[in-house]
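Re-running the complex after MR caught last week's input typo. The corrected sequence lines follow. Everything else is unchanged.
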Amino acid sequence: MSTVRYTPYHPRWYRRRVSVWWWLQSRSYTGFVLRELTSVAVAFFALVLLWQIRALGRGPEAYARVLARLRSPLFVALDVLALAFVLFHSITWFNLAPKAMVVRLQGKRVPDLLVAGANYAAWIVLSAAVAAILLRGRG
Amino acid sequence: MGRPITPFLWLLFSAGGTVAALLFPVHLLLNGLAFPLGWLPAPTYDSLRSLVGHPLTRLYLFVLVSLPLFHWAHRFRYTLYDGLQLKHLTMLIAVLCYGAAVVGSLLAAYTLWNMSS
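Corrected-run output:
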């Protein structure tokens, strides 16, 4: 970002100071910041996945130790919280998809509901596929 | 951040957001909660190792870890700018966020590469 230089011909702008808690003043602001914060849950779980993958590479004992750590109340609480945030991310992401990417078929705009619906359908199919593959190897 | 790289970072943000939206809920529910807590019969170590033995699984896992980290980096840096009003620290925050995503991705690539056998 370039800093703005003030000159005699460029009067100083009037900028009201805004509290760090500006986003608590309205529901839609709070929703916006909560949506932004879902990224923390996403990063947290990406690291948990990486941790599990690394343990898988080190051997059965290391993997069992990681599973035992994931059973601790701290991780159960963090995972439940992360799941709530990740679900919030999925739903808001799919609902925004039709606005971010306008699909046209034969010159006509595909209705928003159909684009979002396709995302939800893909979500269900992929989740079922992942669950089927993982549950096939059950002990 | 320099201008030419911005569209590329936005693409990573958007791809990572899609991967996380589609695949994180099911993996978080199963690998984070249901399997460790025994709500569902967990896959055995050997079955997971043979799954990871396939190159496509390792590619999948790399994408599953790496892209969402870049999604986080992008979104979290704007959270810091807007939420905490840290506009003056733009460069430092960007370097720390994307740097963390790069380190996480390299670690994932290294780990998965060594698991080929």
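None of the earlier attempt is carried over here. The mean pLDDT of chain A is 89. Chain A touches chain B through 57 residues (CB under 8 Å).
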